[in-house]
Amino acid sequence: MSTFNISRRTLLAGAAAVPIFGIITRRGDAAEFGYKLATGQDPTHPVNVRAQEACDRIREATNGRVDIKLFPANQLGSDTDLLSQVRNGSVEFFNLAHSILSTFVPASSLPNTGFAFKDYDAVWKAMDGALGDYVRAEIAKTPITTICKSWDNGFRQITSSTREIRTPEDLKGFKIRVPQAPMLTSLFKALDAGAAPINFNELYSALQTKVVEGEENPLPIIATTRLYEVQKSCSLTGHVWDGYWILGNKRAWQKLPEDLRAIVTREFDRSGQDQRADVAKLSASLRTTLTEKGIKFIDVDREPFRAALAKTSFYKDWKAKFGEVGWSHLEAVSGKLG
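Structure tokens predicted for TRAP transporter substrate-binding protein:
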């Protein structure tokens, strides 16, 4: 039986009677450092499963001094709301996609560059290497910081309720929801699609009411949010890889003694490795699961999409925005872009 049979809406509808976070993270004793970790993903998503395991291990390893309570499914606000909250410290930790963080830290979307990575080997070589170090250093110049290595959001695929996307030409005029992320908006506009930035917590209703024809997300997101109920096909474009940063409010992070910070980082890195494996495994199995739910999968040749993008000013424009240093870190793994 799939773990994705409980819908996001059912969970949220029942939240008033039985708060999800109350079930997952209820604690009896007051901790020396009581922090909140907010996420936008459903409780069944590997992000929340592994984050909760990290929170439990941290509480145990610190003898209860650090108690991090998990608030999944945008309970504390939309992604853009939560980014403001972690900046001002009303939420101490927040799990956010690189692509959305780029509205605040532009360098965060370097790894989201369209068709930059061909596979996971390339992704982790970049993110656990010089490119990841560069992006984390840029984030650290702000009131927030990264508390561990990047987690995995997966390669993004395109779904549709109308036309089937097989070639770049099929995207012309296609009304597609994108997150509040300049890179993804730019990519689809360059390919002549009608890109509409919409917050994640409004996505299902936007598809249901045909405000947009389609959207693009990694398969675990498509599954856990039951987007297969309002979409017919999924084109395996893998157009962008996206990850998650677990971000910390810098003041709250620095309040933790160094030994406790080391424990928190260690346990979130451990859960991050587990979550990466989860997403890779899920992405392989979900094609079968989602086919059974009625989604038609379309294998596409990615090269024409990359070639179409290269004919536009997309790569040139983003290289100018990111600068030579950041772009060189990207091309060291991706190869020449544009």
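The chain has a mean pLDDT of 91.
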